[in-house]
Design a protein that fits this description.
Helix content: 10-25%
CATH architecture of one domain: 2-Layer Sandwich
Number of strands: 18
Order of helices and strands: HHEEEEEHEEEEEEEEEHHHEEEHE
CATH class of one domain: Alpha Beta
Shape: globular
CATH topology of one domain: Transcription Regulator spoIIAA
């Protein structure tokens, strides 16, 4: 019985989806009279080599029958070729010839990459949807795809399907397009405190697809790394710091506006600026139930995206101008001997 149970279990080998045949008792072997064959007169080595060659040939023929070559897939009217992609790094990563997308979702049963033009995003319309093949575009719990081609000016998000089970923490809804938590910029409403069309406080959001090159000059900037015991910290609400007219800055309530006041902080002896939340958040998240605004920002949407409505560039150039404005604030404060902390 033990031998039978072992024989009926599938064989785990290098060739997936194939299992060893279960052993079954058969008739006793019959004695046959010897006849000469093709191996007669050959050495043991030659016989083994011939057997290996025959087995390899049979296996290759079997592979050709069982593993048909996948057809090429294209997106954006043939402008981009859809390939398997890589599971790391997470987020959208510009590489030679295209962009790799990778996102974690352990509970999803299906996934699709959704592409937007800025005009279609405003109209709450997906420009193109690229379904992800769970066999080709999934490694463990990471879904991934590589789009070979030009994606300049496009935005992206994801659509996931799965179980809707709030008691287990699962809120899958295939009708929603969600933002990549690793997006470097989130494109949504343009103006701080102003709802989108139709008084919509939660319009569709999308992530910026990065370029394969940097558009910012750090001018050799490096982290300051002061010992904590030597810090003189100024806690700053980025928008509140210069929003009032008395600040006399060209772009009040923005990163570039705050740059104008860095010399003042240096005169005070400040060598560390602790920024209150300046990641992407929705200041109008309470607008449907209250007149209050989320001024402080302690309800982050994306930790890797600077708050676009804290920048003078806003969502222009798919948010890249806003990213460069945040980098400018960091670089210029370092020049004045001021390092930064960012509160989550």
């Amino acid at each position: 019985m033990k031998m039978m149970a072992m024989a009926e279990a599938p064989c785990l080998c290098a060739r997936p989806f194939l299992a060893a045949r279960a052993w079954r008792p058969g008739p006793a072997p019959r004695l046959r009279r010897w006849r000469p064959n093709a191996t007669a007169g050959k050495g043991v080595g030659e016989v083994c080599a011939a057997a290996v060659e025959a087995a390899t040939k049979a296996e290759e023929e079997e592979d050709e029958e069982e593993e048909p070559v996948a057809e090429d897939r294209y997106a954006l009217g043939g402008a981009c070729r859809v390939l398997a992609g890589m599971p790391a790094p997470l987020g959208a990563t510009a590489l030679a010839g295209g962009v790799n997308f990778a996102v974690y979702s352990g509970g999803a049963t299906a996934a699709a990459l959704c592409l937007f033009t800025p005009e279609d995003l405003k109209a709450d319309r997906v420009s193109e949807e690229v379904p992800l093949d769970p066999l080709m575009n999934r490694t463990g719990d990471v879904w991934h795809v590589f789009l070979e081609g030009e994606l300049h000016g496009m935005l992206y998000g994801y659509r996931f399907d799965g179980t809707f089970a709030p008691h287990c923490g699962h809120y899958f809804d295939v009708s929603n397009v969600v933002v990549d938590p690793y997006a470097k910029a989130v494109i949504s409403r343009e103006e701080y405190g102003v709802p989108a069309h139709g008084n919509n406080c939660w319009p569709q959001m999308a992530g910026m697809i990065p370029l394969p090159y940097s558009t910012f000059d750090w001018e050799g900037d490096l982290p300051l790394r002061y010992p904590q015991k030597d810090l003189v910290i100024y806690e700053m609400h980025l928008r509140g710091f210069t929003k009032h007219d008395s600040s006399n800055v060209e772009h009040p309530g923005t990163f570039i506006g705050a740059v104008s006041k860095l010399d003042y902080l240096k005169e005070l002896g400040v060598n560390c600026i602790e920024l209150m939340p300046c990641h992407e958040f929705n200041e109008l998240e309470y607008a449907t139930s209250s007149s209050k605004m989320n001024f402080w920002g302690y309800s982050t949407i994306n930790f890797f995206s600077p708050m676009t409505r804290y920048t003078s560039g806003g969502i222009k150039n798919c948010g890249r101008d806003g990213i460069n404005e945040f980098k400018t604030f960091v670089r210029e404060s370092h020049k004045r001997g001021q390092q930064q902390y960012i509160l989550p």
